[in-house]
Design goal:
- The protein has helices at about 5-25, 25-30, 50-60, 135-140, 155-165, and strands spanning about 35-40, 45-50, 70-80, 85-95, 110-125, 125-135.
- It is α+β, with helices and mostly antiparallel strands and about 180 residues long.
- The protein has one domain: Nuclear Transport Factor 2, Chain: A.
- A hairpin with a 2-residue loop joins strand 5 (about 110-125) and strand 6 (about 125-135).
- The termini are far apart.
């Protein structure tokens, strides 16, 4: 892969993110994508297939359903010939309904920090699809819907450990051997 190709893909991905989170313009977001693009939020099966469905999703369920304090803290980015894999910490306070991530859950006012992995595939110079992964159990624990004291799940510490592997102890969910 050429450095030019990598720079082109990275610039397009950054433009796409800018329109999702900064300009909040659905039309500009869609302009970065091929006509038959799709987005799949793996844990919640939200997103859409094709320009019309994605337009509806972005304008009704994603862009306006982003808490005002949303922040994305990068961890790593890998760029291939036609793919970018982004790893980051997604942070927000659950002050509004977020039906793309927490369908049917009223705002809890709680802070959430969760590691995300986004696999972005390109066709030519446009986004073709996004597969977006996060630990939904961690999100549910942080908003108070799962009890980590009785389930083998972690909360915000999973995000902190993704950013710094030394900041949290490993194996704390494993019961000590007798």
């Amino acid at each position: 892969m050429t450095t030019t190709r990598a720079a082109t893909l990275e610039a397009l991905w950054e433009e796409h993110l800018r329109h999702e989170f900064d300009t909040k313009r659905t039309d500009a977001t869609l302009d970065t994508m091929v006509e038959d693009a799709y987005v799949n939020h793996i844990p919640t099966l939200t997103g859409g297939v094709g320009r019309e469905a994605l337009g509806d999703f972005y304008s009704r369920h994603f862009i306006p359903k982003m808490p005002p304090d949303t922040a994305i803290d990068p961890i790593s980015r890998t760029i291939g010939e036609d793919t970018i894999v982004d790893e980051f910490i997604f942070r927000f306070t659950h002050t509004i309904e977020m039906d793309w991530m927490l369908p049917g859950v009223a705002p809890t006012g709680r802070g959430v920090e969760v590691p995300f992995v986004v696999v972005v595939h390109f066709r030519g110079d446009k986004l073709a699809h996004e597969h977006i992964y996060w630990d939904q159990a961690s999100v549910l624990a942080q908003v108070g819907l799962l009890d980590p004291s009785v389930l083998p799940v972690a909360g915000a510490e999973s995000a902190r450990k993704a950013a710094d592997p030394r900041c949290e102890p490993s194996n704390r969910l494993i019961a000590p051997s007798s």
